[in-house]
Each structure stands twice: as C-alpha cells, then as structure tokens.
Amino acid sequence: MKKLLSSVALATVMAVSFAQTTDQTPTTVVNPNGSITSIMSANNLSYEDAAAVMAIARATNMDPAIVVTTRGTVTAPFYDLEPAYIIAQQSGKQFIDVYGMYTGGQTWLQIANSLNVSPTYWNPNNVATDSWTNDDFAKYSWAAMMAKNYGMSPDDYTYFTAQTIPFNEIVVAEEVAKENNRPVRDVIVAYNTNKDWPTVWSSTTTTTTTTTTTMPPATPPVTVPPDTTQTKTTTTTSTMPVANEDTVPADHHTQTAEASPIEEWQVNGANVEEFMTGASNEASTTSTFALHRKHHSRHHRSRRHR
After folding, report:
1. If you ran DSSP here, which 8-state letter would residue 133 be given?
2. pLDDT truncated to tens, each residue of the chain (306 aa)?
3. Dist CA 108 CA 93 (whole Å)
4. Contact by Cβ (8 Å): 162, 12
5. Rounded distance between C-alpha atoms, residue 155 and residue 139, angstroms
6. For the chain, how are helix, strand and coil distributed in percent, rounded to 5?
7. Cα dihedral across residues 142, 49, 4, 157: positive or negative
8. What distance in Å separates the CA atoms of residue 81 and residue 113, rounded to the nearest whole number?
9. pTM of the model
10. Which positions ≥6 away from 171 have C-beta within 8 Å?
11. How far apart are CA 182 and CA 205, in angstroms?
C-alpha cells in the first residue's frame, strides 16, 4: 500500500513537472545519425539499450557511437547510466569520473548538487527531494528529457502509468514512434499486444513503396507517301464555225442598233411618255417591228455594195 501511494505521488509530481517543462522554450536537438536497429547491430545491444543510446545522444548532442564508446567497460544498462551522461555533459566532467562518484557511494542527487547541475535537467518543478532515491532521480531526469526532446505530455505519462509500462520501455516506445513518425500511444498498444519489440518495430516501420510505371514505346509517326497520281488536264478548244458570205456574223445579234428605242418611237410618231410608262402595247409592237425592219434593210444594202 505504501509503495502504491508513493507511485501515485510520484506520478502526480512528474505530471506537474511535464506541464512546466513543455511550457519552456523548446531546445534545439540534433537528430543523431543511425537508428535503433543500426545501433543494435553495430554494438550488439538490446532494443532497450539502443533506444536509451539514441535518447541520450539527442539530449547531449552527441553521436550515438560516441555515447556507446564513452561507456567503456561499464556494464550497467544505458537506461541506468543516463544521469551520469547528463551530469557529465552539464558539468563538464568526464563520464567515467561522474560514474566513479556514483559507484563511490554518492547518490545522483548529491552528485548533481555538488557539481552545480541545473535542476532543469532533473527536477524542473523544484519539488521536494528529501526522500528521493536514485530511481526517483533517474525517472525525473528521463521525464524531463522525454518532454523536451520527444514532446511527451502529462496526458501521455498518465496513460503510460495506467498501462503499467516500465519507464525504460517507454523510452523505447518514444524512440520507435519518433523514428517512424507514428503516434507513441499506437506503439504502446502494439507493445502491450506483442510484448516483443522486434515485432512492434516491424509493424510500425514506415515503408516507402516506389511504383515504376512502364510507358509503352512511342508509336512512330505515320509517313504519308507523296501522291503520285497525275492529274490529267483536259483542254477544251471551242471551234467557231467559219461563216460564208450568206452567214450573219457571230456578233451580229450583239451589235447595238444605231437608233435607240426612244428614237425609233419618235421616228414612228410614238409618244415618249408612253414608252416610259409602258402604257401603249400596240405602239410598242409597231415600234419593235419597224425597228427590226429598218435594221435588216440597212444590213442587206450594205452587202449589195461590197
């Protein structure tokens, strides 16, 4: 019962700490080279250790390979060594020296205070630390790191607590979610279902599918052969009949009479006004006959004098 109350109190304090941490100006975090799987294969690490290495690298702006090398011959899990890395980075001390202080009997809280490390990295809400254990210091330190570098909210932490997920597994979930751009709660659900990080990784890894479209070969242009059909042009020549002496010339009927219709009407005594109005059909008939008669008489006289 006492342990349960202690866990509830710690969760409440950490939730407040998260709230204040996320209100701070975000820090610039270098995205480390590599990933959980590459760090695992290169250094023969577990998912938990590889995720802790990646998280420490993000928080300290170190290359993950340097984080691994710095541990040296220390065999403790990287999750448990996070306070030593943070205190060393903030105080300017060597990792091995800080860790030596710890193995020499000092608590993480004592080491952080003695080296003047800002509580921002391990107690951002400045809560009472009289009863803190080394585990409490590690949880607060990890909580501050997750809030700054992974965006973990108080609601997320409450959710993780309700799911009874150990904090070292929460670190793995956050790193897997970050690397694969997935919601961290989806990763936690997958972990609760499988309890196996390789399976969770496979189910959450973002796969990029490249689709190659094969275009059909271009259809060659159709060449239209030149038109070899010759166009036959037919020229029609009109042959005009040759007129004899008794034949009237071809342009005979197109010649203009020497006297206009009005003059002919005047010659025959017709009224000009009647011509203009077409009033006298009889006069018109008489005039037309007289005009033709006069024209042919003149024509025959001309032929006799040739």
Report:
1. -
2. 444 444 544 555 455 444 444 333 334 445 566 789 999 999 999 999 999 999 999 999 999 999 999 999 999 999 999 999 999 999 999 999 999 999 999 999 999 999 999 999 999 888 899 999 999 999 999 999 999 999 999 999 899 989 899 999 999 999 999 999 999 999 999 999 999 999 999 888 754 444 444 555 555 555 555 555 454 444 444 444 444 444 444 444 444 444 554 444 444 444 544 444 444 444 444 444 444 445 445 544 545 444
3. 14
4. no
5. 16
6. 60, 0, 40
7. positive
8. 17
9. 0.61
10. 48, 51, 52, 55, 79, 142, 146
11. 9
Token reading at 278: 């077409």
In one letter, which amino acid is 18?
F
Tokens of 13: 């304090």
Q: How is residue 182 written in tokens?
A: 């997935």
Whole-angstrom distance, CA of residue 148 vs CA of residue 274 = 121
Whether residue 85 contacts residue 56, with contact meaning beta carbons closer than 8 Å, is answered with yes
The contacts of residue 188 (CB under 8 Å, 6+ apart) are 159, 160, 163, 165, 170, 173
Report residue 284: phi and psi, to 5°: -65, -40
Q: In the structure encoding, which two tokens stand for residue 24, read together?
A: 């701070």
Question: For residue 68, which of 56, 86, 59, 80 has the smallest C-alpha distance?
Answer: 56
Q: Which tokens belong to 12?
A: 């409440």
18, 78, 101, 203, 223 from 144: Cα distances, Å: 7, 17, 23, 28, 75
Q: Which amino acid is at 298?
A: R
The token pair at 116 is 């003047």
